[in-house]
Amino acid sequence: MKRSVLVLITPALLLLTGFAAAQQTLSVYRGAQAELFGRAPDRNSLLTVSLDDFMAAETLPVLQPLGVPTAVVFSSLSREALEEITKAGPAEVEGSVIERKTVNGLPGYRFSFPRTGFEVSFALEKPDKPVLDQIGQVYRKNLYWRRAVMEHYQDNYIIRIFEAKNVLDPGKKAVTFEEVLLTASFVGDSDQWLWGIHDGFGVFNEITFEVSKRQNWFYKAYDNYRDYRENAAKMYNRIRNLEQIDGDFVENLLMYLSDRTAETELTETLVMPEEFIETGFGSPLDFACFVYDILRRKRMEPVLLAMKNAGTEDYSFLTAYRTGKDGLWSGVSRQGLVKNAGDSLSSLGMAYTILDAEALFTAGRFINP
Questions:
Q1: What domains are defined for the chain?
Q2: Which of 217, 264, 248, 242 is nearest to 337 (CA)?
Q3: How high is the pLDDT of residue 18?
Q4: Distance CA 213, CA 229 (A)
Q5: In 3D, which of 237, 236, 246 has the Cα closest to residue 148?
Q6: Helix, strand, coil: what percent of the chain each, to 5?
Q7: Cβ(182)–Cβ(188) under 8 Å?
Q8: pLDDT tens track for 122-173
């Protein structure tokens, strides 16, 4: 008989209480197609269900004996964590149980809450040619994103669903493809890169993050200068995904943000980086603070600068940083990246005032310099 392993003791991971409070819904794009592995050609409409309804729905096996493949990504780091914590048998994680399971000869996992009856089963596999062909088709006119998304998929795993939740029509005894995709989204990464695949719930990103903190796994590689108020696993997952792309980390960060964020007016209340990653909306200062936070954790010596616009009371904001032996300063803003401008901050251009980023984060608002 396999022995059970107690892995974590942390209130932050109570999915039915504390963890679920951070995100109360689960979404996929309407019009997602099974033949496209869950990708929706049009992202204009969302299908959203409450987390409570999803958790309470009946678990049913899919009709396909070998499960339903999707293009929903599951990170290689989270898979490594799953393998580690289940190698001695089922792993208990704050009321949930994670165990290895074989379905029709395919190795996979079961994730359950025995006290509520909740369970889902899935497998992880490397993307095959039909999935990779989807990437080539979507980004056929954008070489940068075709390469980046292709590398992201090749470095990670995709999800095959064996059991799903009949959350859309609880009376039926068969699950639809949309219900399969909602289940894959619950299991999958919070950070989905392929156009037409909605960001996932990221339940295993949370588990991986908590394991890393306690075992000083990947967490120790970063400057953890402050605790995130929310979305910590999502923030670190974003950093690690960007690290997987070839090329300059900051250039890749800017390209990613250009596709995911929109600008708003400067307000007194600061949108914290861990909020910005969720909403994608923020002022130029919020954008600069987000970049500062990411580069600070990457130990790239960022400095937050405010520059008064000529003839006005308005400010522009820039995140400066330097890396490498030469120590030359570079600058990042919504307008782009200035690399290796010079050996002093003044080489970046306008007169500036250095802002105390940590004081801004503590105050949660803009402090006029």
A1: 5-215 (no CATH), 238-363 (3.10.620.30)
A2: 248
A3: 36
A4: 15
A5: 246
A6: 35, 25, 35
A7: no
A8: 999 999 999 999 999 999 999 989 999 999 999 999 999 999 999 998 888 8
| Vertex 50 angle, CA 178 and 287, to 5° | 95
**Joined tokens for residue 361:** 């984060």
Q: Smallest Cα–Cα separation from 304: which of 253, 354, 358, 365? A: 354
CA angle 75, 337, 232 (to 5 degrees): 35
Assigned token pair, 209: 């993050």
Amino acid code (one letter) for 156: N
Look up residue 267 and give its amino acid.
T
> What's the CA gap between 331 and 341, in Å, rounded?
8
CB 354 within 8 A of CB 303: yes
How many angstroms separate the CA atoms of 25 and 20, rounded? 9
Q: What DSSP string describes 12-63?
A: GG-TTTHHHHH--EEEEETT-BGGGTTB-S--S-EEEEEHHHHHHSPEEE-S
The pair of structure tokens assigned to 369 is 């310099």
What would the mean pLDDT of 84-93 be, rounded to a whole number?
87
Decide: residue 230, CB within 10 A, 0-12 exposed, 13-18 middle, 19+ buried: middle
Q: Is the pLDDT of residue 6 over 70?
A: no
pTM of model > 0.85: no
What token pair was written down for 362? 């503590």
b/e code 336-347 from CB counts within 10 Å (16+ = b): ebbeebeeebee
